[in-house]
Design a protein that fits this description.
This protein has 271 residues and is of the alpha/beta class. The protein has eight helices and nine strands. The chain has a single domain, classed as NAD(P)-binding Rossmann-like Domain (Rossmann fold, 3-Layer(aba) Sandwich), CATH 3.40.50. A seven-stranded parallel sheet has the order 3-2-1-4-5-6-9, with helices on both faces. Helix 3 runs parallel beside helix 4. It starts with 8 loop residues before the first strand and ends in a 12-residue tail after the last helix. The chain binds NADP nicotinamide-adenine-dinucleotide phosphate.
Length: 271
């Protein structure tokens, strides 16, 4: 698939680390002109240099995607630099855990904003460019959008909202031929510095092992763009959950009730 995106301009949000950085690498290898974005300038610059040392030339633009004005600036700066935009990968997100009784309303709103409004703001800002290019917009959802999970209600709520937003967008953009893709990764192997927001408002390390690599998610995003796929649910566990949710929702609920206090949902070290 190398070279299949030659000269195409893609913005990858949340690309100064984690899955977003892996997606940026995959798109650069496929020949795309890539804009990496994030808030932390130091990490952003270090990611850009890392790619530069590999022989690529992405540009980096800092933006807080909770701020619609920052999103407009991100799009404007990209168009100023490259003249056009062929795709946006809405990867930026705010991983968060905590049982509902531990998450106050301000924290709940922050988690929804970090996982939903970020993508909505950025998508609204880029749409005129994607209509011109008949481009792609990809949403990084999660298996947590298939079912509300214990210890992750706010995150699940945001990801379900993200999918409904993307589905409505797909219909509205049908005649303009803008491709809208929804990718649901399973649990990804966390890097050593991975942190999630917890009920007391602090970020804590995670102790879980994942079911897939960042690279496998990055490859799936690339495949989704190239084949203009609508939806991909990743990992056998994710696909099994999706099927069971249709076939036997009561059984899914029963299993989650029985296992809700098990370590598999207590993914932060001391929650
Ligand atoms: N890891 C998993 O197991 C998993 C599973 C399924 C789905 N996903 C989804 O995949 C995506 C990436 O996950 P990840 O594990 O790589 O997350 P991560 O390591 O926490 O990275 C999140 C990225 O988003 C950026 N970001 C967060 N808030 C932002 C904001 N307001 N404005 C701009 N950038 C912002 C962060 O950079 P700054 O902090 O510098 O802004 C960072 O680059 C997320 O959407 C997540 O929900 C992850």
């Amino acid at each position: 698939m190398t070279g299949r995106l030659q000269g195409k301009v893609f913005i990858i949000t949340g690309a100064n680390r984690g899955i977003g950085k892996a997606i940026a690498g995959e798109f650069l290898r496929a020949g795309a002109l890539v804009v990496i974005s994030g808030r932390d300038l130091k990490r952003l610059e270090s990611a850009r240099l890392e790619f530069e040392n590999m022989g690529y030339a992405p540009i980096s633009i800092a933006a807080d995607l909770c701020d619609p004005e920052d999103c407009k600036k991100l799009i404007r700066s990209t168009v100023d630099h490259f003249g056009k935009i062929h795709g946006l990968v809405n990867n930026a997100g705010l991983p968060a855990r905590g049982r509902i009784e531990h998450i106050d309303s301000a924290l709940f709103a922050k988690i929804v904003e970090g996982n939903l409004n970020t993508a909505v703001n950025c998508t609204r800002a880029v749409l005129p460019e994607l209509i011109k290019s008949k481009g792609s917009v990809i949403f990084l959802s999660s298996v947590a959008a298939i079912q509300g999970f214990p210890n992750a209600a706010a995150y699940s709520t945001a990801k379900i909202g993200l999918e409904r937003f993307a589905e409505a967008l797909r219909i509205e953009m049908h005649h303009q031929r803008v491709h809208v893709g929804i990718l649901r990764p399973g649990l990804v192997n966390p890097p050593a510095d991975k942190r999630v927001l917890t009920g007391d408002g602090s970020f804590k390390p995670v102790s879980h092992r994942g079911h897939q690599s960042q690279k496998s998610v990055a490859k799936a995003v690339l495949r989704m763009v190239l084949k203009r796929r609508n939806r991909i649910t990743m990992t056998p566990a994710g696909r099994f959950l999706s099927a069971m949710k249709w076939l036997a929702p009561g059984l899914v609920r029963f299993i989650l009730i029985r296992t809700q206090f098990s370590s598999r949902y207590e993914t932060t070290e001391d929650q």
